């Protein structure tokens, strides 16, 4: 797990809390801010997921190359 995955997940959770709080106090602006934060979190986590997949693929390719030499 990398920092983008962690930070993205934290933003997503914080956004869910903010959205729920907005609903609780009947504040559409807080709900929308929470939803925006969730989207930002999902994007950042997705970016982290891609980085992790690339790293794993490089590692696998490197190990494959070593074992065939």
UniProtKB/TrEMBL annotation:
Coiled coil: none annotated. Pfam families: CsbD. Belongs to the UPF0337 (CsbD) family. This is CsbD-like domain-containing protein. InterPro entries: CsbD, YjbJ_sf. Residues 4-56 form the CsbD-like domain.
């Amino acid at each position: 797990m990398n920092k983008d995955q962690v930070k993205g997940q934290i933003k997503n959770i914080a956004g869910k809390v903010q959205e729920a709080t907005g609903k609780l106090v009947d504040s559409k602006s807080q709900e929308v801010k929470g939803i925006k934060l969730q989207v930002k979190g999902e994007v950042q986590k997705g970016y982290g997921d891609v980085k992790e997949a690339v790293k794993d693929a490089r590692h696998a390719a490197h190990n494959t190359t070593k074992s065939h030499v």
